[in-house]
């Protein structure tokens, strides 16, 4: 099974900074400069993992993402994520509230960290039999 990752607001990253490829063999990666609440439902409905740098994710948006299992919220985005909604829907939250992405070097370290975390999450899911 291929994992689908969606970054909803990659325009928050400085120019030239990007997420490195994942180690897992099968995955899809979609990255958007910025999505509105309406766009999130359309673009993330098949996502297994969603990454947000500053875009709010509310319960209405979460309900439009029936496959999502992990939401990664970075920086102030952690305050704009409906954590009760995540809990109700059984979606795990990886919060990086103090992460900075204004400076290119810091942002690249952050992107590397997020990619490693996604690889770790996928590996754990495979080892526990959640993914085959």
Give your account of this protein's structure:
The termini are close together. Helices cover 33% and strands 18% of the residues. It has a single domain, classed as Rossmann fold (3-Layer(aba) Sandwich), CATH 3.40.50.720.
Can you give me a brief rundown of this structure?
The chain is of the alpha/beta class and 132 residues long.
Largest sheet: 5 strands, parallel
SS strand fraction:
15-25%
In whole angstroms, the N-to-C terminal distance is: 6 Å
Level-1 CATH class name: Alpha Beta
Number of domains: 1
What characteristics describe this protein?
single chain; about 130 residues; alpha/beta; Rossmann fold; 5-stranded parallel β-sheet; 5 strands; about 35% helix
Tell me the layout of helices and strands:
Elements (H helix, E strand, L loop, with lengths): L2 E5 L19 E5 L5 H8 L4 E4 L6 H5 L6 E5 L8 H7 L2 E5 L7 H24 L5
